Amino acid sequence: MTNALDDLFEKNQQWAAATEAREPGFFTRLLAQQTPQYLWIGCADSRVPANELVGLLPGELFVHRNVANLLVHSDLNALSVIQYAVDALQVKHIIVVGHSGCGGVRAALLNQRAGLVDNWLRHVQDVRDAHEGFLAGLHESLRVDALVELNVLEQARNVCHTTVVRDAWQRGQDVVVHGWVYGLHNGLLQDLKLTAGAPEDVNLAYETARAQLHQRWRQRNSQLNA
Ligand SMILES: [Zn+2]
């Protein structure tokens, strides 16, 4: 009987062999330690493979992914990842990455029902409702991707508010929080310019990024209406 997943094992063997051929001793070296500089908090979407799109190898990126790249204050899973990344691995950067055309964000925006996940996406709806006035001023076709970016800003700010990051900053540890968005249509990352490396940076970084976001999307909106 052939296994429907044989393909994956075959591809895995090819990948391992090619990696080892390119860099002999690659896997045995990784056994000894992982020293990633970055923690990536991204969407679970299969079209947004974290390592691949920034060209990083195993061992170079610590990754947490969930539907719509959320950092919920009481999510023990995500908080544990951040704690281990900051305290044990001493990552220098935590990057929240949203992506255009996010199905989770779309469902949240349009109140589409999909089941249990609706409860998770309620957090995105909180973001939507907090920015209701701004979103209402945009053409329908722009709202999903604008909400994707607003959601990144909110989640990045949530990361800044975790006890883990607060404590690290208080100790004087060098860790910077960023908010990025990935374009499904062109494979490119964009920095949303929310960059915070100290408690006193957070509000200004958020306000500045949000002002730029508003300007960018209002400009797109007026081009659409022109
Ligand atoms: Zn997504």
Automatic annotation (TrEMBL):
Pfam families: Pro_CA. PANTHER family: CARBONIC ANHYDRASE. Its cofactor is Zn(2+). The keyword Metal-binding applies. Transmembrane segments: none annotated. PROSITE patterns: PROK_CO2_ANHYDRASE_1, PROK_CO2_ANHYDRASE_2. SMART domains: Pro_CA. The keyword Transit peptide does not apply. Reversible hydration of carbon dioxide. This is Carbonic anhydrase. Keywords: Lyase, Metal-binding, Zinc. Belongs to the beta-class carbonic anhydrase family. Its EC number is 4.2.1.1. It catalyses: hydrogencarbonate + H(+) = CO2 + H2O. It comes from Pseudaquabacterium inlustre. It is an enzyme of class 4 (lyase). It comes from the Bacteria.
